[in-house]
Structure formats: structure tokens, C-alpha cells
Write a structure and sequence with these properties.
Layout lengths: L8 E5 L3 H11 L3 E9 L7 E8 L5 E8 L11 H5 L7 E5 L3 H13 L4 E5 L3 E7 L5 E7 L5 H11 L11 E5 L9
Parallel strand pairs: 1-4, 5-8
Antiparallel strand pairs: 2-3, 3-4, 6-7, 6-9, 7-8
Length: 183
């Protein structure tokens, strides 16, 4: 039985809080709900700003705006680049309650100058873009529930040494409509 637990929040570092704030409010459609200011542990001069955004669902996304001499030259924020992985590996997927909502988010992203990858995974449809720190974000709309057979197969495939490949997903690239803002 699955317990009803979800994320309270996921926290990431950001290089540019103003760009991050714009992206997560204007582009993603989230709202800033809390800012906490505190010291950097072990640093007499350092301080950090921790900002929390309501995602409209059960969890929040939060960002650290770090101010300390140890980070005077900056710090990496793109978790995939830092790990040497392609951008699709580590990402943050947010719930889309309807296909109309997903289409509205896609249009908003392209209107704000972002290229968007739309992927039909068969059981869900997702749209992907990157935030100002290079992290991949996604909105995902479930088109159907998982069947009992799929749940059984999921467990069987978990330890399969040579699992069969799924049918290739359909990918559509949506170009930015506002080229002046393109990322």
C-alpha cells in the first residue's frame, strides 16, 4: 500500500534570484509564498535567502540565494551539467490537471521565449523546458490510469537484465514565439 506522502518542497541553488523569480512566477505560473533570511552556518559574514513557491499542488519548489565569500566566484546550479548527464535525466515534473492546462502552459512558455519539447509517452503527455539555471522542468498530464497488468509488469521489469524497449515516444518541438526573449 502506498502511503499518502509527497514532497513538502525541493530546494535548489540559484545564480540569479530575479531571473528565477520571473521564471517561476511568470513562466511557470507559481506564486511566491515565503522568504526566509538566515546566516550561512560556519560563516561570520555569510547569509542566505531561501524562497518558497507554491506550485498549485501538494509540494513547493524553493531556491537558495547564497551570499558568502566562499561563493564569490559563483557556484554550479545545473544539476545535470554538474553530474555530466544530459538535461533530460534529472528534472522536476509538475502535475497538469488537464490537457487544456498543459496547452496553456506550453503557449506561455513559447510566448516567454522558451523552446518546448512536447512528448507523448502514451500514458501521459509532457512538456519540457529549462529554467534560468539550466535545470529541466516539466508539466505532465496523465491521459489514463495505470492498469493492474502494467503494475505487475513494472515489478517484473525492475530486475530484468535485457528488458524489451517500449515503443518510441512521439516528440514535437515548439519554437519560441518571442525570439527577442529566446533562451
Amino acid at each position: 500500500q502506498t502511503l499518502p506522502m509527497g514532497f513538502h518542497h525541493v530546494a535548489l541553488a540559484t545564480k540569479d534570484l530575479q531571473a528565477t523569480h520571473h521564471f517561476y512566477t511568470e513562466v511557470m505560473g507559481f506564486s511566491l509564498v515565503k522568504t526566509v533570511i538566515g546566516p550561512v552556518p560556519g560563516s561570520p559574514e555569510g547569509w542566505a535567502r531561501h524562497v518558497f513557491y507554491n506550485t498549485g499542488s501538494t509540494g513547493m519548489i524553493a531556491f537558495w540565494d547564497l551570499h558568502d565569500a566562499q561563493w564569490a566566484d559563483g557556484y554550479p546550479t545545473d544539476i545535470n551539467k554538474l553530474a555530466g548527464l544530459p538535461g533530460w535525466v534529472n528534472h522536476f515534473a509538475y502535475f497538469a490537471p488537464s490537457r487544456e492546462f498543459l496547452d496553456e502552459r506550453r503557449k506561455n512558455w513559447t510566448d516567454h521565449g522558451h523552446m518546448v519539447a512536447e512528448v507523448d509517452h502514451e500514458f501521459c503527455v509532457s512538456i519540457y523546458t529549462s529554467d534560468p539555471d539550466g535545470n529541466t522542468v516539466e508539466f505532465c498530464f496523465d491521459v489514463r490510469k495505470f492498469t493492474d497488468e502494467e503494475k505487475i509488469e513494472a515489478l517484473a521489469l525492475l530486475d530484468h537484465k535485457h528488458p524489451p524497449m517500449d515503443k518510441e515516444a512521439k516528440v514535437t518541438i515548439h519554437q519560441p514565439t518571442n525570439v527577442a526573449l529566446a533562451h
